[in-house]
Structure to design on (418 residues):
DNA sequence: TTCTTTATGGTACGAACGTATCACGTTGCT
DNA sequence: AGCAACGTGATACGTTCGTACCATAAAGAA
């Protein structure tokens, strides 16, 4: 059986097994044995492809961020060809909301990683914790672009609004995650706030699901 | 030495030791031995006052919520005698922001508990996870009261704004916690949004620290 | 004073976890 | 064909963790 095997693909499979079990039982509760069982391989294999647990966790976080990026771009693309800035912004924010099983998993695991990064410097040094900063600048760029096209209300501070939107998205996300809000209510709040930012006329409005 | 001892006080001391070590090393990393060492007692004592670790964690969460409540009312009281609705709202929201060591600890531990509650039904059944719901209705009440005093801009949906403020506060809190934003920036965002809700004239403005 | 309850220390036990070690079949190179 | 590297399995080791057990000194009740 030991054919020559694609390491990258195998690592991805194991990483996804990690994310699945993390979504099911919590990131704190995942062991190498659980990951191995979930991936349908032996414990030794997990050790083989990721020498240590820390490296497995790091790769898992990386994989999570990648999948989220794909998710966002897919959402943006689904907003139509050459979507307006508002549609793109909605795509990003809605993708971060825990609506289905996959986004729930994403939000839970990502929040777990964020919490861990507060007390774990190795995790904090990872670029993916810094990634929200990239999201912030992307959002700022989108808003500024909308501003130049005269799509936003006069007098809005795009930098501040970017931070606001991101904070709202994260806060609403956890709110939905713990069952305090419905996804629909969270989406409504976001939409309402976007209405405050954008002018009413050109909002090729709801691309929510 | 074994005088008759106040159980409630002892439990509080141990619970605070738990919160301290949780703030320092993360909630996932606290063991009974750590708590015992931090409290300056033997492992047996922690077992004696809290029979199991789960009960210790539950009590710790309860203690955390109580301390946060005191913190909020202290802030509200510091806003002056008979403070306006906006001042009270600011007090609540600013108290939730991780500014000093204590509020950082609060935010980190509380978020850890929230994350745990997603996969731990015993924790999810605890009323303190439901507590944010009480905060929401309190905020709604405050906003409605302000609305009746003609202090808010026309056309604002108080229910929706309550949810928005809470989500922003939580989101900004974690943003500050992971070092992505400064507390001042977060406070500015909150203030800006309150400016959007309240009429400009009667805002007896900044009670920030 | 004697006895029972309370408070506390020390320590042991079983399980789980991350990691390391040994072994072996398979594949590709020369 | 033979040899070295790769992929995989099984299992063992040392540690840590939560919990349980045993002992004992002080304090209040009788």
């Amino acid at each position: 059986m030991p054919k020559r095997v694609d390491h990258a693909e195998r690592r991805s499979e194991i990483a996804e097994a990690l994310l699945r079990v993390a979504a099911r039982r919590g990131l704190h509760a995942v062991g190498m044995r659980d990951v191995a069982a979930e991936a349908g391989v032996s414990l030794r294999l997990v050790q083989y492809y990721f020498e240590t647990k820390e490296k497995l966790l790091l790769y898992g976080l990386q994989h999570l961020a990648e999948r989220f990026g794909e998710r966002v771009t897919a959402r943006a693309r689904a907003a139509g060809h050459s979507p307006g800035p508002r549609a793109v912004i909605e795509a990003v924010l809605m993708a971060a909301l825990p609506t289905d099983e996959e986004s729930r998993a994403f939000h839970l695991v990502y929040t777990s990683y964020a919490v861990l990064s507060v007390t774990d410097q190795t995790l904090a040094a990872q670029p993916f914790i810094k990634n929200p900063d990239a999201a912030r600048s992307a959002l700022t760029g989108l808003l500024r672009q909308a501003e130049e096209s005269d799509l936003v209300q006069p007098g809005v501070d795009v930098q501040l609004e970017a931070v606001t939107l991101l904070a709202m998205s994260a806060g609403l996300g956890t709110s939905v995650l713990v069952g305090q809000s419905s996804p629909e209510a969270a989406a409504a709040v976001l939409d309402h706030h976007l209405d405050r930012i954008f002018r009413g006329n050109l909002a090729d409005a709801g691309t929510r699901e």
